[in-house]
Every structure is written in structure tokens, then in C-alpha cells.
Amino acid sequence: MTTSVINNAKTHFKTRLTDKLEWVECPEWDCKIYFKSSATLKQTEEVVALHRENKIAEALATVLIQRALTEDGKKMFVGADKFDMMNSIDPDVVTRMATHILNVEPTAENVAKN
Predict the structure, then answer these.
(1) Is the separation of the CB atoms in 48 and 73 below 8 Å?
(2) CA angle, corner 24, sides to 51 and 28, nearest 5?
């Protein structure tokens, strides 16, 4: 890629990562989980690698650890929370929240302005 194209691509993605936060209601945890509609390739690679190894539960927990945010944009979970997510938290809720985050598509309005 030429320098201008790579710079344009980086600017475009930076814009996607700084767009307003999406959110999903999680009544079981009495909270809203905020997230960005895009993930970095590095984040995606980690989740895909786990999925390929048939570690689906770990992949879903990783999605939440990587992408779940508080209303002010801070990480909701840390890596050390993975053990609890996989052993002490309702798997149906983890699956539903992670799947929602993975399935959110940018709105037509956001696509048009980018």
C-alpha cells in the first residue's frame, strides 16, 4: 500500500473506533454493557484462534473481556476475570452478551458519514 492509502485506512478505522458507543442491556447483571461496533484485527485474531481450537466458551469470554466497556468507555473486565466468566457466571448470559457485541453492524448513518 502506498503511504497515503495506508494513512487513509488508518484514519478511517480510527474514526470507527472513536464513534459513539453502542450498548446492550444486561438485566441479569443490572447493567448496560457498552462497546464499540468495531474491533481491531488483533482482537479478532485472538477470538478466531480460540474458535478454531473449538474453545467457544473461552472465545465468548474473551469478546467480553476485550470489548465490554463502562458508560465512560473504560474496560468493564480484565483478563483475570476470564476464570470467573467461564466457571462462575451464567453461560447463557455470557453467550448472549458476547454474541450481541459480535453481531452489531454499523448503522446506515455511520456508514454514510464514514
Answers:
(1) no
(2) 90
DSSP state string for 17-52: HHSPPEEEEEGGGTEEEEE-S---HHHHHHHHHHHH
- How far apart CA 50 and CA 56 sit, in angstroms, is 7
Grid coordinates of 8:
487513509
Tens-digit pLDDT profile for residues 26-64: 999 999 999 998 888 899 999 999 999 999 999 999 999
Q: What is the pTM of this model?
A: 0.80
Which domains can be identified in the chain, with CATH numbers? 21-107 (3.30.2220.20)
pLDDT, average across residues 7-23: 80
What is the torsional sign of CA 61, 63, 67, 68? negative
C-alpha span between 62 and 43 (Å, rounded): 9
Place of cell 481491531: 40
